[in-house]
Write a sequence for this structure.
């Protein structure tokens, strides 16, 4: 979807919304996001799901965020526009006032500012994970597809083995089987399920670059119930182990819990290539499949060297 498509859909579905400017903000695997200038001091952000399951995930976020938002120490999206059943749009979509700050992705921060940010993120995740898991379940938030427990991880690894192993050469298939078997360990399931953001990477974290402070967290479509370590995996992968450890400490974990959380998070980082391969196969995008396979082969080589 490009800005012209977004303008056309918005004009058809929200004819009373002034459209002073429509600019693409970005796109993930599941949605397209656009910044909309409507004459107000704060622009809007509209997110358009690409597939029916993504639209269902957006509906879950729309139920969750009005209750979750007031419990958190930093802003999250507050949807003021929700469009369903518009013939011009293939799926429901929604918009919210733009949150302050810029994404952490591509933002350079000094060591001192990173320490302040890790403290803010630790406090944010502690508050997020305190939200009652039973209430999240009542709102339709599902178990995490990988980090929800032994059954969820086993199902994911079985699916990955079925779909991914045939894409590997004989030597890598043998390595792959040993690596998959090594992931099923008791420590990986030593957690009490909590409400998770579910996809907390640096492009979902908003910061004030001048102060190194957290200004918001976006994209809760992958919210789930499961292992708190999953919400540290993106930090571990993109910002490094020292930052992840600082954040876990600020989260309130004791020394033993820090080690366990970081080790479990490292497993979720390690299997990230499987997600990309399966996504590429699902949508028929060879680029994702090839990139995931490249990362997987690197992982297998490092594990078996």
């Amino acid at each position: 979807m490009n800005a012209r498509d977004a303008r056309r859909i918005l004009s058809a579905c929200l004819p009373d919304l002034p459209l002073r400017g429509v600019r693409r903000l970005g796109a993930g695997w599941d949605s397209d996001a656009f910044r909309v200038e409507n004459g107000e001091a704060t622009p809007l952000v509209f997110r358009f799901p690409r597939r029916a399951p993504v639209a269902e995930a957006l509906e879950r976020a729309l139920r969750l965020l009005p209750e979750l938002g007031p419990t958190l120490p930093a802003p999250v999206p507050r949807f003021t526009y929700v469009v369903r059943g518009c013939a011009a749009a293939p799926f429901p979509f929604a918009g919210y006032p733009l949150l302050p700050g810029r994404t952490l992705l591509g933002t350079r921060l000094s060591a001192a500012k990173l320490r302040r940010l890790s403290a803010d993120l630790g406090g944010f995740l502690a508050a997020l994970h305190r939200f009652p898991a039973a209430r999240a379940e009542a709102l339709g938030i599902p178990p995490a597809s990988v980090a929800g427990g032994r059954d969820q991880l086993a199902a994911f690894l079985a699916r990955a083995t079925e779909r991914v192993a045939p894409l590997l050469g004989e030597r890598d298939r043998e390595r792959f089987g040993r690596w998959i078997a090594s992931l099923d360990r008791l420590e990986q399931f030593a957690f009490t399920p909590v409400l998770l953001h579910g996809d907390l990477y640096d492009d979902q974290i908003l910061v004030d670059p001048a102060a190194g402070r957290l200004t918001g967290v976006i994209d809760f479509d992958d919210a789930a119930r499961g292992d708190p370590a999953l919400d540290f995996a993106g930090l571990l992968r993109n910002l490094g182990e020292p930052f992840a450890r600082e954040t876990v400490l600020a989260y309130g974990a004791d020394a033993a819990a820090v080690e366990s959380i970081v080790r479990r998070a490292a497993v979720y980082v390690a299997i990230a290539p499987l997600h990309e391969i399966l996504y590429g196969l699902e949508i028929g995008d060879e680029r994702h499949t090839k990139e995931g396979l490249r990362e997987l082969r690197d992982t297998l080589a490092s594990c078996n060297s």
